[in-house]
Amino acid sequence: MAAMSLVLRAAAAWAARRAGGAGIAGNTGITGIAPRLPGTIVPVRHSGGHGKRMFIIKATSFYDTRFLNLLRFYIFLTGIPAALFITYVNIFIGEAELAEIPEGYVPDYWEYYKHPISRWIARYVLDPPEKDYEKQMALLDIEAKKTEMRLMELEARRLMRHRGDGPWYHYETPDKNLVDNSMKSTPDN
Amino acid sequence: MPEDHDWEAYKVPPTRTPVVESTTSVPNPVNFIQTVFSNVLDKPVTFVREWIERQQSKNKFYYYHQKFRRVPDVSECLEGDYLCFFEAEAQWRRDRLVDAEIVEIVRERLGACKQREGPNEFQNCAKEAELLKQVTKAYQDRYGDLGYHGNARKCLMKQKHRMMEERKAAQAKQAEES
Fold first, then answer.
1. How far apart are CA B3 and CA B23, in angstroms?
2. Hey, CA dihedral for A24, A25, A28, A31, is it positive or negative?
3. CA end-to-end distance (rounded Å), chain B
4. Do A112 and B55 touch (CB under 8 A)?
5. Cα–Cα distances in Å, from A108 out to A104, A113, A119, B8, B10?
6. Using one digit for the tens of pLDDT, what is the confidence trace for A39-49?
7. Is A91 in contact with B59 (Cβ distance < 8 A)?
8. Whole-angstrom distance, CA of residue B82 vs CA of residue A144
9. Helix, strand or coil for residue B63?
10. Interface residue of B63, B77, B89 to substitute, partner A, most A CBs within 10 Å
11. Which residues of B touch A140 (CB under 8 A)?
């Protein structure tokens, strides 16, 4: 690079001589802030083989990188402990083996699952399927009884309205002793 | 880990590769490749797998396939007895899953038979093919065109219609004969 700049300086001197500048001394007069002719070759500092430094104008990636960093952070925050835990369970505890139900033995409801985490969830978190079944049947029973009650009520209403001999559809009339007859007692009012 | 296939279930006929008598002094490259494969891939993987199985065999536990009691069918439920309907419906759904699995197993048997026999499949697999045909026809008759919202009640109605059609066809045949 030093040789390059020497060559460039020599070329600059030759260009200045061609242009007819006064005081041709080789190095002086050309280097510096003096105005130069267009086309003068000037030495430029290149950063050791990487090429000329450029100011590249592009859109900001600050928000994008910030988002991706935060995404990775929050995913890994629970993802890595969960992955480690699941790996530990799979290696050291392992899945259950399928076996025939032994004679006279009634397995508990969580013993029908293979993976140990599913077994744990079925045992400690969820309700036994028998309880779920009974809850569903209880809801059905309540709704069935409600429908039956409503139908019977509608039927009773219809009959009482039609026949008029039931306790419903009685309209209260005021007592006849409370009626004030003073206005109706003389014919000339 | 998925289990290996049961090699005893579908009997593969013994292979008939001839014994090779080598006449050259050049060593067989297949042996070298086999030793490389075994030492680089097979042995480490087997070692890790066996170590894992030793850890897991310290406390073994088992899981079972649940056996459900039989409950009265939809045809035995009184009208308006919604609890009976609910139980019969649950039983019908389980039965449908079981029947679907049965069809799948018969289909796999036919596929295995075809793979084994190669060019002889049309003759030697005739029994399995006939069994698959009967089983799929039966499944189609029972659970066939009920649609996504098919339930036990619709299946019963389908059976009723089928029986009515059969009775009509039998009566038509009788009227024709007499």
1. 42
2. positive
3. 66
4. no
5. 13, 10, 11, 33, 35
6. 877 777 677 77
7. no
8. 7
9. strand
10. B63
11. 82-83, 86
To the question of pTM greater than 0.90 for the whole model, the response is: no
Collapsing DSSP to helix, strand or coil, A97 comes out as: strand
Q: What is the pLDDT of residues A28-38, one digit of tens each?
A: 545 667 787 88
Task: Yes or no: say if A9 and A27 are a contact pair by the CB < 8 Å rule.
Answer: yes
Interchain pair A99, B63: CB under 8 A = yes
Question: What sign does the CA torsion over A39, A43, A49, A50 have?
Answer: negative
User: Mean pLDDT by 10-residue block, N- to C-terminus, for chain B (178 residues)?
Assistant: 66 80 82 94 95 92 93 92 94 96 94 88 91 96 92 94 96 94
Rounded CA separation A141/B63 (Å): 34
Rounded-to-integer distance, Cα B126 and Cα B130, Å:
6
